[in-house]
């Protein structure tokens, strides 16, 4: 091949490399925009996305148009952009796979304490239960996998909220409200934020009949999860007594730590 032919090949290779690099960069930027939308609570204007991402407005326009066309972003009537419905299936499937992967440790937790073990994540301001291993007692707690609840009224939700900066927790509670599930549910923001600070210091959260009367839950957040997550045990107050909490809470903490370590080992952290 002559010199001209070699130069043509070299130019083509450089152009192909640039196209590939540009495609990877666009993909990275598109995911970053989705993350920025999630960080704003799921809705933002183009100027807000430009400010938070640092990307040029023409680039944001191009990426948002593509994401809207694919269904991963939608434009609201107020001309602000929000996360699209097509992300729901991806997120739910990923959460359920996380639950399947964690089941051996949940089984270990049930063997150790004798009560039902749960794993939940925080999705779109709601607690979603993604895995459960029931206890062997005839009277046990059943939380349906896939069930969604507001976080302020659950042990797992409180454990996750306690790990957020107070301003983020306050903003989330402002979006969801704090309806009462029982007469024991926390319904006032400021006292609840103080309660979350106590949970963070204590290292675990308790649900004291706040979601369902007669049920107690011990929950611990899972550090390093790609989305806020928590593991818990739940059971009737008659078995899961206040005296039992001091014995069981360290076991739940140990399992939460083991989950965190496995996430790090398998490079599944955020």
Question: What is the strand and helix layout of this fold?
Answer:
Blueprint: H1 3-39, E1 43-44, H2 46-53, H3 57-70, E2 73-75, E3 81-83, H4 86-113, E4 116-123, E5 126-133, E6 148-149, H5 155-161, H6 166-176, H7 189-202, E7 205-208, E8 215-221, E9 229-236, H8 242-265
Antiparallel strand pairs: 1-3, 2-3, 4-5, 4-9, 5-6, 7-8, 8-9
Helix pairs in contact: 1-3, 4-8
For the largest beta-sheet, the strand count, sense and barrel status come to: 6 strands, antiparallel
- The end-to-end distance, rounded to whole angstroms, is 50 Å
Q: Oligomeric status of the shown chains?
A: single chain
**CATH architecture descriptor name of the largest domain:** 2-Layer Sandwich
Estimate the helix proportion, in percent: 40-55%
Helix tally equals: 8
What would the principal axes of the Cα set say about the shape? elongated
How would you write the strand order of the largest sheet? 6-5-4-9-8-7
CATH topology of the largest domain: Beta-Lactamase
C-alpha Rg, in Å? Answer: 23 Å
Write the CATH homologous superfamily of the largest domain: GAF domain
Name the poorly predicted regions: 14-18
SS-derived structural category: alpha+beta
Count the domains: 2
Q: Which CATH class of the largest domain?
A: Alpha Beta
User: H/E series, N to C?
Assistant: HEHHEEHEEEHHHEEEH
Mean pLDDT: 84
What portion of residues belong to β-strands?
A: 15-25%
